[in-house]
Amino acid sequence: MDLGKRIVKLRESKNWNQRELARRVNLNVSVMNRIESGERPARDHELVAIANALDVTTDQLLGREEKNKTVTDMAEFEEFLNDPKISKLYSEYKESSEERREALLAAWEYLKSLDKK
Question: In what residue span(s) does the HTH cro/C1-type domain sit (predicted)?
């Protein structure tokens, strides 16, 4: 997948139109259109601005490093993070002592081992 297609895919995953992304990176819409269509290469500073706006690295944007998660996976992950039970568990884990964290992880491993039996 080329740069323009990756930009379009990421932009659409945020439900942004081309005008919105162009506004966020301070580019003329026609310039953004030419970058997305592959008619014009993005300059370094534009690439950085686009990556920042889309919340990815420039390597991801250039295809050097594929995103670990698809858009669907990211939506599922956001749903997971917004679960009140998960939020409570994470909050309490984060505030616990190292000893408690280790005990919690040991209990979790024990529970997982029961599933294997």
Answer: 7-61
Question: Which DSSP category does 65 fall into?
Answer: S
Dist. CA 56–CA 65, nearest whole Å: 10
DSSP conformational letter for 1: -
Spatial CB neighbours of 68, under 8 Å, sequence gap ≥ 6:
none
Q: List, for the chain, all residue ranges whose pLDDT scores fall below the cut of 50.
A: none
Q: How many CB atoms lie within 10 A of CB 51?
A: 20
CB < 8 Å & 24+ apart, contacts of 40-47: 41/3, 42/3
Tell me the pLDDT tens digit for each residue of 59-72: 889 988 655 556 66
- Alpha helices for the chain (secondary structure H): 3-13, 18-24, 29-37, 44-54, 58-62, 71-81, 84-95, 98-116
- The DSSP letter of residue 63 is T
Judge residue 108's burial from the number of C-beta atoms within 10 Å of its C-beta, 0-12 exposed, 13-18 middle, 19 or more buried.
Answer: exposed
